[in-house]
Request: fold
Amino acid sequence: MDDTLQLGFPLWIRLTHFFNFLFITLLIRSGIEIIGAHPKFYWRDDALPGSEWLRLTRKKIPKNQLWTSEDEIEPMSPWLALPGRNNLGLGRHWHFWAVVGWLFAGFIYVVLLFITPQWRRLVPTSWEIFPSAWRAVVTYSHFRLPPAGNPFNAIQQLAYFFVIFVLSPFQIVTGIMMSPALDGESAPGPVTLADVLEGNWKVLPNHAVIDRLRHRGRMNVVFADGHVESMTIGVGTLQRVCLSAR
Reply:
């Protein structure tokens, strides 16, 4: 019988969970502050007025007078945003340092995960996990609990694996691609990932949406079993990651 139930939750897992939750909260709140400085989402880098696919403001562009993007700023409540009340500079400051902390905690977590047997909780080792996950989904859809896992059932294990090893790296990459230093148009030299993703404004919706999705997955991935934490990682410590809200 698999002995993963005997692994327990050592102190390093508890601490990395705590700091992960702390830094993710800071990232979301400071990200809201940054979005408030220009509450629109675009699929194109030119970001022409009227070309946005999502507006988070009710302010209308005046047609009979000059205006700038400053006129479209939506000050956020400090109860929601960090620090709130139209402080873009401080919002970016918090976002940058929070992501450094999140990546550092994630790096420690993933290293310890793979040098201990704890990886067996999260990494599937058989294709049988997919039919088992489907059976668990069907069981949940009937408002019943599937048989207990060891310690997670198949759908929980897949969800954890996806959040940690797919959504989190994607969030990191899209954040990096919004750094002005890596902008595909301003950076000379060979083609970069920024060129592939076609610039900052196309990346912004993915970065923001995945951040909310990852956080929501973290809180709901274990369904009705009562465990409301998750394990997320970041790979490496980045020297320059900032969200560009031009």
Observations:
- The two ends are 56 Å apart (CA to CA).
- The first helix runs from residue 11 to 37.
